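To whoever is on call:

I kicked off a structure prediction for a single chain this morning and the downstream step that reads the tokens threw a length-mismatch warning. I double-checked the sequence; it's 339 residues and nothing unusual in it as far as I can see. Pasting both halves so you can look.
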Amino acid sequence: MVKNTIAIDAMGGDNAPKSVIAGLAISSVRNPGVEYIVYGDENKLLPLLKKRDNLKKVVKVVHVDDWIRAGEKASKALRRAKTTSMGQAIAAVTNREAGAIVSAGNSGALLAMSIFGLRKLSGISRPALAAVMPTVSGEIVALDLGANIDCSSQNLIDFSVMGIVFAKNVLGKPNPRLAFLNVGVEENKGGTIIQEASSAMEESHFSKYYAGYAEGNQIINGNFDVIVCDGFSGNIMLKTAEGTAKLCSEYLKQVFSSSILGKISFAIGRSSFIGLRKKLDPRKHNGAVLLGLNGIVVKSHGGADSISFAHAVDLATEMSVGNYNELIKKELNNLKSIH
């Protein structure tokens, strides 16, 4: 079945293709019954698959000589879509050979090629990168995380619609609480664009979901389910959160390894500390979804290791097998226009 097949750009990312194949091995164990079409240089891929007998049973390698480079301009990448691993993986979703595509490659190229190949959903001005982030009481979806550096108020409204639908259908939040990321919570804070978007939300039938503004330090307090912002702010927010998590993990490591007392304390509370370290591990939340397209596109972090990439594949698998994109399109079509 198409929804049980995931297309993989094996050549995208700093650690590809090694981390990609290792990540697939991890994800395939967690998701039995799922198959993968892997696009890339078979001379590099086949040796990595050689000793992975179980993975070989569910992987089809499609040889592609070329791939999109990290610093390549999106305009150039578009012209080479048909001959690259990323372009052919996207085409597999377009042609309904796969239910989703996962890539750790060039973000701009992935955005441009996905929009061109999969097309935007009707009524959506721009697609947005969305990712699930942990909070003190659960999870939150944040968007946009880098697809759109400059945004209009209408873009923010569209992102809000997609975020609400995503929170309902993917996070299981029947009444998601949405906030715009801003420099303050007062009504007069922020620029014209965010104030226009806020007014539109308050005057629409989405007002029951709208909770106003949120500052950066309020994102993880558990009071919100959806955070909406422009891609410039969102990308900084995401990278800062990832860096802070790594900093906390490093601090814990230093505390418990710097002295005998620290080592004894770690031994006593080992299971609790290991659990905390796992919660702080940003690799567990790797994978941003490009919402607003007629297909599921998951962008893995460019520096993803095997564990990180496996979680991105898990996300794509969950959304594809669960028909989440169809649910999103259905609800979008049923929502009244606020334009």
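Update from on-call: the warning came from a stale cache, not from the record. Cleared it. Sanity check on the structure: The first strand starts at residue 5 and ends at 9.
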